[in-house]
Amino acid sequence: MASTDTVERKPAVIHDENSLKGELTPPQQGHELVEFDKKSEKKLVRRIDYRLLPILGAMYSIALIDRVNISAARISGMDRDLQLYIGDRYTICLVVFFPGYMVLEMPSNLVLRKVGTANWLAFITFAWGTVMLGQGFVKNYHALAVCRALLGAFEAGFFPGCAYLIQCWYVRLAWFYLTSVFVGGFSSILAYGLIQMEGLSGIRGWQWIFIIEGLLTIVVALGAWFLIVDFPDKAHKTGLLTEHEASFVAQRIEKDRGDAIPDALTWSTFKTHLMDLKLWAFALMFMGTTMPAYALAYFAPVIVYSMGYSIGVTHLLSAPPVIFAVIVSLIVSRLSDKFKVRAPAITFQCLICIVGLMMTAYCEGNVARYWGLFFGFAGCQGNIPTILAYQSNNIRMQSKRAVGSAMQIGFGAIGGIMGSTVFRQKDAPRYVTGLWVTAGLQLWILLLLACTTTYFMKMNKKVDKGTLVKPLEGQPGFKFTL
């Protein structure tokens, strides 16, 4: 951006220990502020959005597809070829994805800053793409389970890394996530197209799903290495921003929430952050909404197929509920941002999820049961970015964001394990037990939400009265977002 777009041209780079390392810090008291007029600020923010969101969104879309395409492959012949219908084989192949996914998230966020976002995120994407490609050549369910375990281990760092990076840039996380879900919603249609390659080169249609999507992941990973941007304090070194623009971005973040300067994540600060009960509440809420998200992703095609539709029609009918969920979630997200509240949005989406689950469980006609999937998807998928934003709005310090995002995604993996196991084969085709467990977790979210809202309101009143001994989150004037 040319300097003529700004009111003040002089960069406010503060030469402290961070700037000596090549990292920019925001202006402090006594230093000259960097100013942009509203038009220039809007252009700068839009440029950051366009550079950051498309590539991360494309990569996460592929991650979502690679994670759940096993359900499409199952109804396309894999269930019979690998004898997944025997006992709990399918459930085992789902569950083994999550242990590595859960354990490796925190270490991945620690590595992210050290090796660089482009290097790390592109590497792990390439790695899981290779595993996905290999998954197309497995001959038994044991090999499939091993591939799924490796897939979870390599995918572990991607979403928490993206959440950490995006929150540091202060870009709307909901747009990143829901755009990815929207694209991922067409995975069933893509799978339907790929199974038309049945028999080509002697390879089954379900195998082509893994092979082609694995190759696509590898190609995107190679391109991503050139496109992914680093953290705001390092962006001027990559050419994304000038030092002047980078200083303004840091100043903008510092003014809003006071954590533009990266703080070190030491063992001491790690233990301190773990003592904050808010992080545990946010993580448990996230577990409650990822459970139905995974469960519906893995079992919605099976439920639709059990209604008597053909494989082709089942693939086609699996996409509309996801697309509907994205539209509803974007509307709720926009209203939540406009009115600067999170709890009402979370409450609304929990309730429509419960309604949808009960429709699918107890309605008699296929149309009503199918519409239940629309509301079920809308509630749980919409609450994923909303609960992430709820945490992001109510904590400070980059080290705490790294710990908090990893905790949330880690508990999300627990939700994935639950979603993989409560929908038991013996409960098919209605899976009433699984649907009730899922609904119960929505009530669990509402209970936690009532606790955090009550606490936040109480502390905000103390801020208004000036009776706090210490400022909230160590930032004078900070108030919790309800």
Describe this structure in words.
- By secondary structure, this protein is mostly helical.
- It has a single domain, classed as MFS general substrate transporter like domains (Growth Hormone, Chain: A, Up-down Bundle).
- The protein is 72% helix and 0% strand.
- It contains 20 helices and no strands.
- Helix 1 runs parallel beside helix 8 (173-184), helix 3 (97-103) runs parallel beside helix 6 (141-155) and helix 8 (173-184) runs antiparallel to helix 16 (320-339).
- The protein is globular.
In short:
InterPro entries: MFS, MFS_trans_sf. The chain has helices spanning 38-81, 89-95, 97-103, 105-115, 117-135, 141-155, 158-169, 173-184, 187-194, 205-227, 235-238, 243-257, 267-274, 277-306, 311-317, 320-339, 343-362, 366-393, 398-421, 432-465.
> What's the Cα radius of gyration?
23 Å
Order of helices and strands: HHHHHHHHHHHHHHHHHHHH
Question: CATH superfamily assignment?
Answer: MFS general substrate transporter like domains
What separation lies between the terminal Cα atoms?
37 Å
Give the overall shape, derived from the CA principal axes. globular
Mean pLDDT: 83
Strand count, sense and barrel status of the largest sheet are: none
Let me know the number of strands: 0
CATH architectural designation: Up-down Bundle
Q: Helix coverage percent of residues?
A: over 70%
Fraction of residues in β-strands: under 5%
How many separate structural domains?
1
Protein name: Major facilitator superfamily (MFS) profile domain-containing protein
Membrane topology: Multi-pass membrane protein
GO cellular component, one term: membrane
Transmembrane segments: 48-65, 85-104, 116-137, 143-166, 173-195, 207-228, 279-300, 312-332, 344-362, 368-390, 402-423, 435-457
